[in-house]
Amino acid sequence: MKDGFNYLFLIKNLIMDINWSIIAIVAILVIILVVLTIRKNQREKKKLENLLNNDFKKAEKDRVDADDSANEK
Predict the structure, then answer these.
(1) pTM of the prediction?
(2) Which of 27, 40, 50, 58 has its CA at 20 to 30 Å from residue 10's CA atom?
(3) Residue 71 in contact with residue 64, Cβ under 8 Å?
(4) Rounded CA gap, 25 and 30, in Å?
């Protein structure tokens, strides 16, 4: 009876060790995935911002206002 108890105790310890190892590996992979996703979103945000800032066409004014100082040509 003593040998059976020792065998079950060893199996229980082995299973617990495996579970913590698997949990640690999964946690590390999740952290890496989150970091990579955040970095990719920042790059995409920067690209979109540059696209939106440079996408419009500036309208040329035909009529020059004397009061408009930014209308210098």
Answers:
(1) 0.51
(2) 27
(3) yes
(4) 9
64 close to 73: Cβ distance less than 8 angstroms: yes
Tokens of 73: 């040509």
State the Cα–Cα distance between residues 42 and 46, nearest whole angstrom. Answer: 6
Q: State the DSSP code for 72.
A: -
**Number of neighbours of residue 23 by Cβ within 10 angstroms:** 10
36, two tokens: 């990579």
pLDDT in tens, 5-14: 677 777 777 7
pLDDT at 40: 96
Report the alpha-carbon distance of residue 38 to residue 43 in Å, rounded.
9
Residue 61: Cβ within 10 Å count: 11
